[in-house]
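Input chain follows. Return structure tokens only.
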Amino acid sequence: MSRRHRKQPKAFSDVAIHGIADRGSVVGRDPEGTVVFARGPVPGDVVDLVAKKKKGVFQDGRPTGFSSFAERRQVPFCKHFGACGGCSFQNMQYSLQLDSKARLVQDAFERIGKLDTVLEPILGAPNDRAYRNKMEYAFSDRRWLTEEEMALGHEMEKPALGFHRRGAWNKVLNVDHCHLENEPGNHLRNTLRDIAVEQELTFYNEGANKGFLRKAMQRVLNSGEVMLVLMFGENNPKLAKQYLEEVQKRCEYLTTIYTVVNLKLNDSMYGLEPELAYGKPLATEQFGHVQFNLGPLSFFQTNTAQAIRLYDVVAEYAGLTGEQNVYDLYAGVGSIGLYLARGAMQIVAIEEIASAIEDAKVNAELNSIDNFVGYAGDVGAILTPAFAKTHGAPDVVITDPPRAGMHADVVAMLIELAAPKIVYVSCNPATQARDLKLLVEGGYQVDRARPVDMFPQTPHCESVAVLTRPKT
């Protein structure tokens, strides 16, 4: 499309922002009732915007002026806010974030699920900062500059270690301090960058697919253990050795270091085998009454304190008495199932990723849990009447699917199996509401539901719902 035929943004005046939407956007209406999605304002603001129409909806609205500001606006506490894609809502007081997320879930239940369920109060996190136990950072040979930095003459060629800028795969924002990360995470990241600059090591270039230092993943656990996984973009054992020796010297708190060489065009660890370079092979995290051993590829809840509270909600909704046969679907490393195992007769877990279910079995043995069995494979393929006949019909089903929700075949099988109770944990209220509607149409009723904020300062919100099948 030629430049002169491109659609120009449309101007809107006095748009009243009333809620949050997916992926960090907010939503509002102008006086004529037109719905506009934007970034930057907060619920309660009245703002002038320009927005482009995409797929029939006005999106990516950019503020041009404010008529009034929300009472619960606040000054962002991070200097990277706005440029960094990690946080979306630092300009909202935490109480406003919670109210907005609760409304987002309630709207999904009503609009998509056609449910009249009244949500229980949203469960806020005990800490709205310094709550993440895992962070991933990218090395880049050219750091992204803000307009202010460019005006001051800062150099783009200086290397960066930080986050990809929102919507820009090839631009990395150099992060000095992340307020969401557990300490000593910030010290570790900054030390990794300082040593690399001192040793004149090359940082990765996405376009050219070259550069020695490519990614860093770090886990700072409540147990006090700290794991580092370094991804190299070139296979150079000599440089790796001198770099790691200095990292160990300056970061004595490290308990585990893994390295992996990735010559692929993407950053995925799939198909790669990290090698233990230093310390113990597994990091241990205490998760309530359960211990978990975590490897370099293990999936684990990134907000330990709030995840325990989430699982307590699941346990409350499940109401286990020691006599129930529990199916744990989309089990991951089995964290929910293992947490609930002491209250169940049996936990039967199904997880698509084979390495995750192997981690679950190892952690079951670590905790002397002998009523846990796990299977790797597609939930829809494994969960059949024959499977239920072999392992016993479920009394309670726990399901915690990815953002896409459950496949329609899985929902249909749950209706066929007719477990007396289903506890549905979701990271996406829209797909959860869609699935709940199907389950209700299949004979279930939603008894209780509660949003749980796992990730303050971000748009993400979990929710838990419990369904029962009325006796006929």
